[in-house]
Design brief:
Arc Repressor Mutant, subunit A; 7 helices; mainly alpha; 149 residues; 52% helix
Length: 149
Amino acid sequence: MRLPCTGQRFFLLDISTFCDITIGRKGSLMYSVLSIAKAMSDPNRLRVICVLRGRELCACDIIEMLGLAQATVSRHMSLLVQAELVVGRKQGRWMYYRLPEKKDGSAPEVREALKWVHDHAMSDPQIQTDDKFVKAHRKGKDRECTRNH
């Protein structure tokens, strides 16, 4: 982000730099909250969080829903997994993603953040469109990814 020159100097840190400099300790509550905030700061990642509610999806389904390149979606998913907002598992060639459950040992702040997103974002028209897309796309498929890559 560029700011107009006003004769003053601004020091900009992204949240990950702030997190590394200020907190520096993975596992602390502050680190967890900052990781969650960073992960939820992108509309595409919020779309993924919402569409994963109550289901597990293959990465290829998420790529199609978002209409983004595989590498971009992989980066988004990596941030969500790092913040523990999403759980990933590899099966053969495919990556599958779902939301964490209490039995997974998810932290209270993660469960609260996911509840907050669902309480406030599920009525958004884009989220509803994504949900319909995934339901139609997955219709007739079994749980396994059947896409030919």
